[in-house]
Structure formats: C-alpha cells, structure tokens
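[Solved] Which block belongs to which protein?

Original post:
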Amino acid sequence: MTQYFSNFPTLQYKLPEMQNSLLATDVTKRFVLRDFYRNSLIDFYRYDIIEGQRPDNVAYEFYGESNLDWLILLPNEILDPYYEWPRGQNELNEFIRKKYGSISTAMATAHHYEQIIQSKSSVRLPDGETLDIPERTLIVDQTTYTSLSPSDRKLVTNYDFEISRNDKNRTIDVIKPIYIPSILEAFRSLY
C-alpha cells in the first residue's frame, strides 16, 4: 500500500506539545475506486485466495507489480487487511485462541442461534446437470431456538462463526489487467 499513499497530498501537522510541525500524508483524501468503475464497463475475475497469499502476492500474480496491492484491496472494500483478508489455518487458530481463550472454548460457546428455513439440497436439471440449493437460515433468539425441533435449528459456535467469516473473505474480485493503466492514470490525475 506504500505506492497508494505516495501520491497523496501532504500537510503540516503540529501537536500542541511539539515545537516543530511534521509533514504528514493527508489520509483524509481517498481515491474512491468504486466511483471510477461504476461509470465504466470494468470486468472482474472472481478469485479464491490461496492459503498464505497476501494482497501483494495477488497483485504480482495479476499485474506483475506487488506494489499494486491497493488495487486488490480497494475494489473489495478491504480497509483493514488484518481482519478482512483471509487467514491461514495456523494464523486463524491463533486469532481464535487470543479472542476466546482457547479453541475448545470457542467450539463450546454459542455465537448465535439459527432457524433453518430451507435445508441444503440439490436438484437434477433436465440436461443432467445438478443444481445445488444452499441452506437458508434466519438468526433467532435462544428461546425461539429451543422451541424448534432439532431438524429445524442450528447452533453456530464462536469457532464456526470465525471459520465461516474467514472463508467468506477468501473469494474476491480482481480487476482485469487491461483496465489497470486507465485506473492508474485517473489516480495520478487526482493527486
């Protein structure tokens, strides 16, 4: 992300206890990439992040430059890669241990309760292809949960919740490389 901030304007910043002011990057200015591609016909690749990959690795893989990692993060509205980028299994386990005390505590503690509205199923189409229909659930309170039959309810533990959230972070959109020069030009012209 260092290249992303390199073109930002700077400002003089002075704290009351300081004698001299500092030159600081004005991070209040933002390049809203969404506004840029909303007005264009930009195509994306759907990409599943491989365990251990970082934004700079993905940028290098698609654009040949690791310092374009901000073009991986911004279209996916990832503002905090520490929490919004998928963790590897060891890193995720360590995060869970720090947050909940232990893996076993996270597995034994309810995060929330769900009512199953539609069970997961599959349908065979006339052409022979199988269409998977995902499970649909509704978050409910504990009283409602206990009143439901076991086949109509689902307990989501803290561990399940963290695994699911991490898996959702794994699939991202990557701007097709053909559009990168025009995005970089628009970015440079703003700053």
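(Second protein starts here: sequence line, then its structure tokens.)
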Amino acid sequence: MKRAELARLLDHSVLAPEATRRDILAGATLVRDWAIGQYCVQLGWVAVAAEALVGSGALVASVVGFPHGCEPAEVKARAAEIAVRDGACEIDMVIQLGLLKDGAQDAVAADIRAVVRAVPGIGVKAIIEARALSEAEKLLACRIAVDSGVAFVKTSTGFHAAGGALAADVRLMRATVGTAVGVKASGGIRTLADAQAMLEAGANRIGTSASAAILGGLAA
C-alpha cells in the first residue's frame, strides 16, 4: 500500500481531555500535510477543527458518550446533533457496555439507534470496547450495532484499562459484520506494523494519534 492510500484510511485523533486549541490546530495541520482522510476530536473542538480543515478534503469526526458510554441515549443523541451542527461528518459513539453485559439487548439497540436517527445521513461508528468483553459479548455487540444501522463497528476508545485494538478482535468483528459495514481498529496503534496488522485482519479504518509515525514508515 502506498502512503497516500493508507493516509485516506486513517482517523487521526486528538482526544486527550487536556488538549488545547493549539493542540487541535496542530492536529489539523498534520492532517492537511499528510492528506489524512479523517480527523477525530472531542465535541467542544469540532468547530475549530472543521474551520481549520476547510478545503482539505478531510472529514471531521467527533465522539459521543466518550469514553465510557454511560450517558442516557438522549444525551448521546443530542451530542451527536451538536457535533454535526458544528461540522462533524462522522460520529464515534460508545455503546452501553453495562447494559450489554446485563443482556439488555433491546436497550443497547435503542441507545445506538437514538444516535443513528439523530443524525440521518451521517456515518455512525459503534465503539464496543472489545477488550472489556467476552467473545460472545463481542459478537452480540456487533450484531446489535449492525441491526441498529451503524456504518462501522470500532474496537476501542483507547482509554479503557483493558487495552486497545487487537488483530484477533478485528478479525472476529469483520467475520461478524460481513462486508457491508466497516471495521475501525483503534487504541494503541502507533507503528506502521500495527496498522498493517489491523488492515490484514480486516479493518478498513485506523484510528490513531500516531499518524505521522505510521505514514513515515511508507515511501511516498
């Protein structure tokens, strides 16, 4: 894969709670300079990121229910609406992990659907926090997400103590969702080898804060 091809598959992220305006603008400059496809920021920074990337071709994404997913569905839905109002073109939402573990499938589905319906025409990624789930729970989370209308399932927030993306989880998620839904690997992906392993396992989007290091490993 050439550098430009990989760059379009990256969601460069600046999600640290202590990130400043300068950090957000530096991330936007990196996205422009490397022709990265997407830039993911916290809700309060969407407007700044969107303005900084006008004319670049990059899409701005934002996170809702992040990083724990415990907010009520209506809160997540409203956050998604605000993000889109401010310029986001994609939404990464954390599902209700506790409800999933309780076996409350209808409630988990309602949580995801609330966000999907709040932003029609916008791609929603369901973050399942795979490392915190059993294999059966991972399968169930993916199936509920697909049935609820998401564009992607996503491995991890990158903020959970259980850890980030594993190629084995990406492989399982891809086998579960098929080819009609995307799989985003995110969390702890910091090198070109990491990214390549996730793509080989079936991911078609990579979330990372180490975009420059990853792309720097490929010839232009």
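Accepted answer:
You had them paired correctly. Confirming on the second one: The mean pLDDT is 97.
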